[in-house]
Amino acid sequence: TKEVMKQPVLTSDGQCYDKEAIQAWFQRGNMTSPATNLPLTSTTLVPCKPMQAAIQEYLRHRPEVQVREWDRRAYEAAAQQLQSDLCGKQVVNATTEVAMEALRAELRALAAKLMASREAPEQQLRSVAAEVQSRLSMLGVAHIEKEREIDHGNEVCCVAWHPSGSRLATGSADKKLRLINAVTGRVERQGDHGDLVWCVAWHPSSLRLATGCTDKKLRLIDAATGKVQREGHHGDLVWCVAWHPFSSRLATGCGDKRLRLIDAATGQVEREVEHGCEVC
């Protein structure tokens, strides 16, 4: 795959592969070794712990490689999510078209009833008009799409759209970050924070999030897994956070009257700028 192995495993001939890649090879009906093209006696896979340890040590010394791997996985997850959202929208559109056709049929029936009652006595005409008005009112209510409401345990303090428009992130006073599917309204994932989640921002081109919290911490989160990748301490509560549009750098505003520029790959503060008041 020319990518860093996530789960190195050994095949029956002693060759080492990434578990996901070799399983995909077998699922395509192959019973040979990709490296030698010789037949394998078994599809049994054995974890290669020495290689796993070597990879972890390598990534510890090369954090920029780890960041690229996170971004690659985030892109893959984003592609899968977009495909899922597309399928969901197609279902919604099909359902909407059925509802619209039913509405058109109902309106045609009401129009026919009005036309048929043109020569009726006034009292009967008023009765038909009242019935039509009632039916139209009912149809209007039935076909107005209601806004979704998603219950949070406490006040919602911040909300941010993913650049794709497919999902939302919210932070609330119940100390939770929630990731929400914008098509279905379903909460796909939620994660605990140490205190009130005050601000949230999506990376412009991946499924990474940055959150600021009143526990004085900046957190970097992989939305695909919900795991906190990195935490950074600040001198006071983190009021606001923003990603650089073309890199993995962050800017934060803090209650300690400082603006900080941070390298998300390493977590290092590159620069601090003093302000005369809280940076919001």
Question: What descriptive keywords fit this protein?
Answer:
single chain; about 280 residues; alpha+beta; 4-stranded antiparallel sheet; 4 helices; about 30% strand; flat
Q: How would you characterize this protein structure?
A:
Helix content is 35%, strand content 29%. It has helices spanning 19-27, 49-61, 63-116, 122-142, and strands spanning 8-10, 16-18, 46-47, 156-161, 167-172, 176-181, 187-192, 197-202, 208-213, 217-222, 227-233, 238-243, 249-254, 258-263, 269-274. Strands 4-5-6-7 form a four-stranded antiparallel beta sheet, with no helix packed on it. Strands 8-9-10-11 form a four-stranded antiparallel beta sheet. Strand 12 (238-243) and strand 13 form a beta hairpin. Helix 3 packs antiparallel against helix 4. It is flat. The model is unreliable at 141-146 (pLDDT under 50).
Radius of gyration: 28 Å
Low-confidence stretches: 141-146
- What percent of residues are in strands? 25-35%
Q: Tell me about the biggest sheet?
A: 4 strands, antiparallel
**DSSP E strands, number:** 15
